[in-house]
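1st attempt posting a full record on here, be nice pls
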Amino acid sequence: MGGVLRITPLDGQPWDVAVGAPNWWRTPVPTEIAFISDGHGFVVDVVTHEVRVDVPGVIRITEDERHDLVLLIEDGVMTAVGPHGIRWRSDLAIGDLKVRAIDARGIRCSGFLTQSDVYRGIPTLFIVEPNHGTLVRVE
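the predicted structure (as tokens):
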């Protein structure tokens, strides 16, 4: 299941993107989806075909229904998109940033926080506060 969307950016030429069932994520806005294309994380309105958010370097996307967000994840930076656009953007790690779980405590992540983490190859577990994107606790 999927389809082809014609996307019309505000400052560029329209382009088509093929979006398959495993390659897109829901957002807090029912008419918008998120997907990764050419190394960019996009949030696009499927009715108007407008690009609402374009974040370069995105390698993962995670839905956060608990906090009404979609999370666009780069190697060390997370951008949270809510119903009214980008809510926050936080530089959280120096690499390998991943969302592990989302619960009442916040957005539970892992990533390399220090060069020591990188050398050991062992990411640190931490919690991100979902309203402001601040790292609130290292586990």
